[in-house]
Amino acid sequence: MGILPLRRAQLSREQCGRFPGDAGGAGAAMMAAAAIAAGPRRGWLGREARASLAAFLLGASVAALPVVLGSPAALLAAPGLRGRLALALHVAGVNAALLLLYPRPLYKIAVRACFLGFAFGCGLLLSTGRSAWRHFGWYMCSLSLFHYSEYLVTAINNPRSLSLDSFLLNHSFEYNLAALSSWVEFTLEKLLFPELKQITWLSTVGLLMVIFGDCLRKAAMLTAGSNFNHIVQNEKSDTHTLVTSGVYGWFRHPSYVGWFYWSIGTQVLLCNPICMVGYALASWRFFRERIEEEEITLIHFFGEEYLEYKRKVPSGLPFIKGVKVEL
Question: Cα separation of 6 and 42, whole Å?
């Protein structure tokens, strides 16, 4: 833990986390610590949000294919020629509809949201019945919904900061590597130790962790209001206030807490013992460093007000107390 003399507090200028949290996660990337909220919250949906929501639902409509085809619900488990053709036509038709409906700037948003909706719908298809890939279907639903909701909540909360990056799909190289590692581990262990991937009670525990973590993170984003941003803020305006209510009354860093347990939960859900340990260690180390860096900025912004808040409210992450202060 670093020791910070108050008279030497410096602003940290860093972007959101480099290590994944979704498939491993880490870094709600704003001022995550007691998020700074300013300005009125805009609860209506702008055109970007409306386009993304329509596209997400359009992509998710792939889950209705078994009804249309009169096929078994677990279409992806054994699709056959007819099922593969139906999936290909669905993708082509949806993409054509997006091209016709939206100009290029909105199309870029819609195609990403549609991709996430398609992944969500495919996850629903895998989750039905007694397919050996059922738990991976739960994971697909969790992963796609996490990324889409990041964009949608940002669109509601802080539309001025909205961009394609708000989906967090291009988080970092480490993020993609962690995701790929979890998929490889799941596939290899499914082939070598298939019984390991059928521990339903363990996957259910993981699913509950995922739901808890994602809900906590989104609650933190909504509570923080219009200044929750996926880029760490480094300048304090006159309207900034320290938010200590709601979930920030439980933890100083609720968005990080949510992402931490969400990321580990994805690996518990997949029954991935190696990635489960790897995600926990890497995420914990990342958040320890991130919280210390951000608390330097928060102390610089709010001084004694933040120090008092820090004394009363825990960080929320195990064995992480935040930056130490030398008075």
Answer: 36
Cα–Cα distances in angstroms (integers) from residue 278 to residues 86, 231, 234, 317, in the given order: 38, 26, 31, 17
Cβ–Cβ under 8 Å, residues 237 and 301? no
Angle ∠(312,313,316) on CA atoms, nearest 5? 155
Extract the tokens encoding 114.
């549609």
DSSP string, 14-65: -BS-SS-BTTTB----SS-TT-EE-S----S--HHHHHHHHHHHHHHGGGGH
Q: How confident is the model at residue 238 (pLDDT cuts 50, 70, 90)?
A: low
Q: What is the pTM of this model?
A: 0.83
The residues, ordered by sequence, that sit 6+ positions from 131 with a Cβ below 8 Å of its Cβ are: 74, 76, 77, 137
Q: Which two tokens stand for residue 278?
A: 């790897």
* Cβ atoms of residues 42 and 226 within 8 Å: yes
More confident residue, 66 or 180: 180
Instruction: Inform me whether the pLDDT recorded for 283 exceeds 60.
Output: yes
pLDDT tens digits, one per residue of 25-65 = 333 333 333 333 333 344 468 999 999 999 999 999 999 88
Report in angstroms the alpha-carbon separations of 44 from 41, 156, 217: 9, 6, 21
Sequence letter at residue 174: E
* Rounded-to-integer distance, Cα 124 and Cα 64, Å: 10
Amino acid at 211: I
Task: Measure the CA–CA gap between 32 and 27, rounded to whole angstroms.
Answer: 8
Q: Which amino acid, one-letter code, is at 292?
A: E
Question: What's the token pair of residue 136?
Answer: 């991976």
